[in-house]
Amino acid sequence: MPSPSIVWFRDDLRLADHPALRAAIDRDEPIVGLYVLDEESRDIRPLGGAARWWLHHSLASLEERLRERGGRLILRRGPADRIVRETAADLGAGAVFWNRRYGGPERDIDAGLKQSLRDDGIEVRSFAGSLLFEPWTITTGAGTHFSVYSPFWRACLAQPAPRSPLPEPRKIQGPSRTPASDDLADWDLLPTEPDWAEGLRETWEPGEPAARRRLREFLRDDVDSYDRARDRPSAGATSLLSPRLRWGELSPHTIWHASIESGDSSGFLSELGWREFAWHTLFHFPDLATKNLRSEFDAFPWPRLSPAALRAWQRGRTGFPIVDAGMRELWRTGYMHNRVRMITASFLIKNLMIDWRRGEEWFWDTLVDADAANNPFNWQWVAGSGADAAPYFRIFNPELQAKKFDAEGHYVGEWAPEYRAEDGQPPQPIVDLGATRKDALAAYEKVKQASRSRTS
Q1: What is the Cα–Cα distance from 365 to 119, expressed in whole angstroms?
Q2: Would you say residue 320 lies in a domain?
Q3: Which cofactors, if any, are listed as required (predicted)?
């Protein structure tokens, strides 16, 4: 009797350049793809609403593509360690393969599973499929992790070049019997009451085929203008590949080599480096979403939360046009231009004086590309509490930022048109930028004083 291989899909919802899938094919036994919706394991962060929407459609695409090639994807829900072991036993599996995860709770689950499956006589292997460089392989001269981006990326580039992507399999040997599977619709990943996803449907087409099309389009049409136009939110010069990387519909190896082969000489590949740096940091600091990376920021005197101010920010009703435009783009599309992400984050933290964790939670729930590393890493960067952080006294003035990067008002006109209309009735500013800047700098001075007292 054949002993099938299980390929456990996680944040790698693709067929091309999938090392775990390639290992299963090379084993020359029937293959069963498995996806586990784990909302029960300890310390696993539940997905936000926009992420659940994307996951539904990306899984549907993956299931269809596996079937076209003769394979199967089974869906099961529950704590991953139990579900994977039960599935392996149900199928009489001879091997379980997966691509690695890098968050602390996920690594603990995977390590325990690897040992228990091997104790049962099952072959288990994990692979590097989601990062260009494994986090533990990039170290300083002293053998420690990096805390500054530039030397980190130089150390990465001094390594052997990232491997070439693996080809997409044309045929997959499926199992002789169809294993039991949950119905994707029963997972209720899509919003219904109310259905707020109209803008997501208009903006995105999840799945590997659409991801590969977007990569080709970007490298053909947009990458040449990337450096000079990437900071202008109305220019359409960004890659829009971040959700594709977050869900693994494209691997970073595929993007890396396609960019080089296209002759790209822009700074685009350094954006992959920033992503690598975020995961490098999460690997060494698993509590990145809840704890200040720089402990001196624990002394930051956050005032009592103003629910009204937080709601105004979330809904794009702050009275500052580019902030409101960004927050409305986020709610409508599940995405926000990167420059505007920095502006809106700085406004929340340094003008509204609201803890960066409240903003990180909102982005986690509303972004289709929010992942466990990049989302908190970038919020801590803006806050000044993270790795290679922007100094706290760097406060983005939203009015000056709008003049510099949206001078003609195209972005604001698209997402917050009342600010551009002659008879529009925009909301009034909820804070004074000058006064709140002074308050933020005074709070930052208290952090510095507390740090000096601790080290003296």
Answers
A1: 39
A2: yes
A3: FAD
Query: Are 233 and 332 within one domain?
Result: no
Measured CA to CA, the distance from residue 78 to residue 36 in angstroms comes to 7
Q: Residue 57 is part of a domain; what is its CATH number?
A: 3.40.50.620
Around Cβ 108, how many Cβ atoms within 10 Å?
Answer: 15
* pLDDT tens per residue across span 392-430: 678 999 999 999 999 999 999 999 999 987 777 899 999
Asked whether residue 238 is marked as a ligand-binding residue, the answer is yes
Strands 123-127 and 73-77: unpaired
Q: Is 346 annotated as a binding residue?
A: no
CB 2 within 8 A of CB 16: no
Residues 313 and 373 in one domain: yes
- Domain extent, residue 245, equals 131-165+206-284
Write the Ramachandran bin of 326: left for phi over 0, alpha for psi from -120 to 50, otherwise beta. Answer: alpha
Q: DSSP readout, 377-414?
A: HHHHHHHT-STTPPPTT----HHHHHHHH-TT-HHHHH
411 is in an annotated binding site: no
> What is the token pair recorded at 119?
């104790």
User: What is the C-alpha to C-alpha distance for residues 302 and 434, in angstroms, rounded to an integer?
Assistant: 18
Q: Which residue has the tokens 């696993």?
A: 44
Secondary structure (3-state) at 6: strand
Q: Is 47 annotated as a binding residue?
A: no
Is 181 one of the annotated binding-site residues?
no
pLDDT digits (tens, 9 = 90+) for 5-28: 999 999 999 999 999 999 999 999
Residue 226, marked binder: yes
